[in-house]
């Protein structure tokens, strides 16, 4: 069987790595092709993850980065069509909700290649998030909808998807995390940054709604500046956010250590030892839930409600006062956690079994 998997942006790498490894264990029965669209392409947003997650070198690189959403999606489609026609896979595997996910799915659906969507069924019910559009379209044209948690199944069923296309397989992000734990333990990032476990905050911000609006970005940084008077903050800055901070000339306190985006082992080591994580990331909500670390998600909604219902995640309406109030609340009452079912390191094995059916 020929299986073609697509990666494009940072959150894809930790999802595809365990799936390719699980498929590899079937030996000659599976021929795998990896396509990198190039959405994220440099050392810090892409190459380091190939090394640390032991992903194979992509067989095809489409070299598409930058541009508006429409331009990027269209260029990925144009570059991907001849590639999929050349390989003619039995399955296209796409993960998550980035532009590469929807662009490659659209191409495959038009030429009749079956699509398996990993992380299907997640919904924020917020169409102002570009990712929500990508999720809904990809799910609508996928043949196999592989969900990380039962809320995904419920969303798809409510949208009229036939239950025989939906399979709850668990969370592949957590597969990568569990496998990497020994390496994460070996990271020396806390020493390098002069931090003490349990006595710092890890912050990440990159959603357009938080960083593209200068007034909102200034408010969120003002809140972080205030938090940093109590606990030092490590802030691995996404390229998009760094660009905004520079053009808007926003003042960041000295106790906030703005570092470049980190490799997976170092980043997860910081997360594991953080007192609190403040973020607007999707994946970070899941990783903190698995690790039992308190997470404040600075967004009005989440497509991952299980991280609140069962995990350590709390939503915070974006703003300075709301973030400071939420921080005080979780400091006083840290959320408890149950680990969601099937977040057990074996999601990729279940996916491979389904694909080989
Ligand atoms: N991550 C990392 N280094 C960083 C920031 C993030 O290794 O400096 C990892 C982490 O595992 C996170 C994943 O990249 O869950 C996805 O990150 P991002 O927040 O960019 O994407 P999202 O999940 O919001 O789509």
From TrEMBL:
<dbReference type="Pfam" id="PF02350">
    <property type="entry name" value="Epimerase_2"/>
</dbReference>
<protein>
    <submittedName>
        <fullName>UDP-2,3-diacetamido-2,3-dideoxy-D-glucuronate 2-epimerase</fullName>
        <ecNumber>5.1.3.23</ecNumber>
    </submittedName>
</protein>
<keyword id="KW-0413">Isomerase</keyword>
<dbReference type="InterPro" id="IPR003331">
    <property type="entry name" value="UDP_GlcNAc_Epimerase_2_dom"/>
</dbReference>
<dbReference type="InterPro" id="IPR029767">
    <property type="entry name" value="WecB-like"/>
</dbReference>
<comment type="similarity">
    <text>Belongs to the UDP-N-acetylglucosamine 2-epimerase family.</text>
</comment>
<feature type="domain" description="UDP-N-acetylglucosamine 2-epimerase">
    <location>
        <begin position="29"/>
        <end position="355"/>
    </location>
</feature>
<dbReference type="GO" id="GO:0016853">
    <property type="term" value="F:isomerase activity"/>
</dbReference>
């Amino acid at each position: 069987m020929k299986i073609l998997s697509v990666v494009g942006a940072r959150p894809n790498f930790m999802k595809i790595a365990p799936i390719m490894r699980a498929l590899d264990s079937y030996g000659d029965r599976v021929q795998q092709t990896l396509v990198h669209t190039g959405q994220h392409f440099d050392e810090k947003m892409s190459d380091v993850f190939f090394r640390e997650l032991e992903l194979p070198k992509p067989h095809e690189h489409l070299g598409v980065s930058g541009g508006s959403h429409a331009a990027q999606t269209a260029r990925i489609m144009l570059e991907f069509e001849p590639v999929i026609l050349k390989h003619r896979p039995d399955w296209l595997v796409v993960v998550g909700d980035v532009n590469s996910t929807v662009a490659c799915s659209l191409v495959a659906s038009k030429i009749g290649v079956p699509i398996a969507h990993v992380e299907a069924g997640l919904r924020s019910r917020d169409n102002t998030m570009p990712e929500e559009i990508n999720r809904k379209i990809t799910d609508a044209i996928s043949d196999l909808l592989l969900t990380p948690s039962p809320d995904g199944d419920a969303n798809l069923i409510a949208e009229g998807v036939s239950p025989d296309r939906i399979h709850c397989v668990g969370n592949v992000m957590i597969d990568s995390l569990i496998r990497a734990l020994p390496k994460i333990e070996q990271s020396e990032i806390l020493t390098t940054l002069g931090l003490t476990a349990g006595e710092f905050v890890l912050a990440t911000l990159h959603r357009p709604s938080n960083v593209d609006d200068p007034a909102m970005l200034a408010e969120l940084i003002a809140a972080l500046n205030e938090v940093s008077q109590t606990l030092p903050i490590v802030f691995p800055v996404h390229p998009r956010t760094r660009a905004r901070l520079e053009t808007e000339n926003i003042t960041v306190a000295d106790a906030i250590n703005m570092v470049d985006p980190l490799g997976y082992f170092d980043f997860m080591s910081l997360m594991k030892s953080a007192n609190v994580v403040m973020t607007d990331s999707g994946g970070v909500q899941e990783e903190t839930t698995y690790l039992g670390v308190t997470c404040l998600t600075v967004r009005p909604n989440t497509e991952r409600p299980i991280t609140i219902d069962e995990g350590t995640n709390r939503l915070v309406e974006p703003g300075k006062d709301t973030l400071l109030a939420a921080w005080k609340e979780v400091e006083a009452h840290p959320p408890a956690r149950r680990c969601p079912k099937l977040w057990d390191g074996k999601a990729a094995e279940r996916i491979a079994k389904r694909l080989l059916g």
